[in-house]
């Protein structure tokens, strides 16, 4: 009688190991490392000088996680749709769904729970916020199903997603922010998106493959046009941030012109990102490259510290 008992024990242990492996694969597929992009939701909190208001900070953090969960739902659904193509990709074939470590059915169920839960949580922050969150979900769904296949439209959709993050961040805490912040956000996001496309083209060339094998939209990009777009978006990002810092409304609001002294830091960050692209980083994506690059992170850290000191200490 001991053999069946031991067999049941082993079966139970095997089931627990399978469940644990599936849970880890689900977390990996949700890509929490990409949640750093949702830090744009916190921009209105910082630039409205409410960073140390604990009640508003809690609302902003709540909004951050709602966008993060929604983004993870989109990643899961997108990976289910692209699993056959991903299996032919040298890097994407290792993703949990493409590799078979995560069941598509489990991924779809998790995406639905994350999506519905986020929208319900968004209503708690108010219908306007929930509306922006829904718009972000619709935009990303259209991107996954259609827009990502159209060159230049794909990067524009990505940039608009970042603008929606900032709009939602302002709605979550009930503040108004300068239109220059929205313009700068769009330009920075466009720069990053174009950088990702350049990285994908370079990676395809290095592997000796046609660039459309990595992404269909890459067939509509020429490297010289990408480089031109990167220079234009980078310059516009720095210019729009400069115009924000010297705007009469900004100087009057904060009671100081010192914010203009922080302009070199975004310029250095953009230059560093371009340098990483030109050198051909070994990272699997530009996002991974900048999140593991000490000079870039140091520049962003010094910029953020400088902004906080100027707005919260030097300003009136």
Note the gap between the termini.
81 Å
The top-level CATH class of the domain at 38-177 is Mainly Alpha
- Unreliable stretches (pLDDT < 50, length at least 5) are none
Counting helices, strands and paired strands, the structural category is mainly alpha
The count of β-strands is: 0
CA-based gyration radius: 22 Å
Shape: globular
- Tally the helices: what do you get? 14
Round the mean pLDDT to the nearest integer and report it.
89
Any idea what the CATH superfamily of the domain at 38-177 is called?
Answer: UbiA prenyltransferase
CATH architecture of the domain at 38-177: Orthogonal Bundle
Helix content: over 70%
Largest sheet: none
Provide an overview of this structure.
Helix content is 74%, strand content 0%. α3 (54-81) runs parallel beside α7 and α3 (54-81) packs antiparallel against α8 (153-173). The protein has a domain at 38-177: Orthogonal Bundle (Tetracycline Repressor, domain 2), CATH 1.10.357. The model has no long low-confidence stretch (mean pLDDT 89). It is an all-alpha fold. It has 14 helices and no strands. The protein is globular, with a radius of gyration of 22 Å. The termini are far apart.
Tag the structure with descriptive keywords.
316 residues; mainly alpha; Tetracycline Repressor, domain 2
Tell me briefly what this model is.
The chain is mainly α.
Describe the secondary structure blueprint for this structure.
Layout: H1 2-30, H2 43-47, H3 54-81, H4 83-86, H5 96-99, H6 104-124, H7 127-145, H8 153-173, H9 179-206, H10 223-246, H11 248-254, H12 264-279, H13 286-291, H14 294-314
Helix pairs in contact: 3-6, 3-7, 3-8, 6-7, 7-8, 8-9, 9-10, 9-12, 10-12, 12-14
């Amino acid at each position: 009688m001991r053999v069946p008992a031991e067999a049941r024990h082993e079966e139970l242990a095997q089931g627990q190991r399978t469940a644990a492996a599936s849970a880890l694969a689900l977390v990996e597929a949700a890509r929490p490392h990409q949640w750093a992009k949702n830090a744009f939701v916190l921009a209105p909190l910082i630039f409205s000088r409410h960073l140390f208001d604990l009640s508003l900070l809690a609302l902003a953090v709540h909004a951050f996680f709602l966008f993060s969960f929604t983004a993870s739902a989109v990643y899961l659904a997108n990976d289910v749709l692209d699993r056959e193509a991903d299996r032919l990709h040298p890097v994407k074939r290792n993703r949990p769904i493409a590799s078979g470590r995560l069941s598509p059915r489990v991924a779809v169920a998790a995406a639905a729970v994350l999506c519905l839960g986020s929208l319900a949580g968004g209503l708690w922050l108010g219908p306007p916020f929930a509306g922006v969150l829904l718009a972000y979900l619709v935009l990303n769904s259209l991107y996954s199903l259609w827009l990502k296949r159209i060159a230049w439209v794909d990067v524009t959709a990505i940039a608009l997603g970042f603008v929606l993050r900032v709009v939602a961040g302002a709605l979550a805490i009930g503040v108004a922010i300068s239109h220059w912040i929205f313009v700068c956000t769009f330009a920075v996001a466009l720069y990053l998106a174009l950088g990702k496309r350049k990285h994908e083209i370079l990676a395809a060339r290095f592997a000796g493959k046609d660039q459309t094998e990595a992404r269909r939209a890459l067939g509509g990009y020429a490297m010289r046009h990408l480089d031109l777009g990167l220079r234009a978006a980078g310059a516009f990002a720095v210019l729009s941030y400069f115009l924000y810092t010297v705007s009469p409304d900004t100087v009057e609001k904060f009671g100081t012109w010192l914010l203009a002294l922080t302009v070199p830091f975004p310029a250095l960050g953009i230059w560093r990102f371009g340098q990483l692209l030109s050198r051909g980083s070994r990272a699997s994506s530009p996002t991974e490259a900048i999140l593991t690059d000490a000079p870039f992170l140091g520049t962003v850290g010094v910029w953020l510290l400088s902004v906080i000191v100027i707005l919260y200490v030097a300003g009136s």
